Amino acid sequence: MIIYGVALLSGCLLIGMLTGQVLGELLGVSANVGGVGIAMLLLVLLSNSERFKSLTCGAAGSGIQFWSAMYIPIVVAMAAKQNVAAAVDGGVLALVAGVAAVVVSFALVPMLSRIRKPDAADNEDSGADS
């Protein structure tokens, strides 16, 4: 029943690409503006909507969940490839800015991982000490 997931994915992709192309024309850019991102958002919204709840049950639901889970990493990889190609064409400053953003992101991961909300177990432990 993965075919339902593929059908939903392809429908979202077609609508997203058409919307991105129209948006590009309206903005005066001869390119697709955000079509893949629009498709991704449509897929997330539709796969979680009440209208498609009957499709998201049982074997058909596993197909939709599979493609919903696979689509986001694919989109990220596609966007990263485009950004690298644009950076190489853009010159040294674009490459330095891209590398700096990645280094800062990696440096922030340990700091962000330490920030968390206290669990109920943490609150009980702190109450037992006083």
UniProtKB/TrEMBL annotation:
Signal peptide: none annotated. Keywords: Membrane, Transmembrane, Transmembrane helix. It holds the Pfam family MadL. The chain crosses the membrane at residues 30-47, 59-80, 92-112. Coiled coil: none annotated. NCBIfam families: malonate_madL. This is Malonate transporter subunit MadL. It comes from Congregibacter variabilis. The lineage of its organism: Bacteria, Pseudomonadati, Pseudomonadota, Gammaproteobacteria, Cellvibrionales.
